[in-house]
Amino acid sequence: MSGPDTTRILQNPKFRELVSERTRFGWVLSGVMLGIYLGFVLLVAFAKGFLAMKIGAGVTSLGILLGVAVILSAFVLTGIYVQRANGRFDDLTRDLNRDLAR
Questions:
Q1: What is the pTM of this model?
Q2: Could you report the per-residue pLDDT of 81-93, keeping only the tens digit for each?
């Protein structure tokens, strides 16, 4: 890609909007995942008795269930990102491509 083309893309307001929205959304989801993971680690460090509580017939502990919830939350957050990427981000990319084709 040549210099003028690169400059034209970087100065396009729709490109800036796309980059800004995508970056902000990525940081928000990263922060949520970090909070979930940090909360779990803090529980492991400071509330071992709480995590050792047996659930139901005593086969599974609360810690196991919360660990599975941490893993599932990563899948859910990934799904949320994919949903946004296939919707809003694709729309912004399509608009940007139309703008640049002129």
A1: 0.84
A2: 999 999 999 999 9
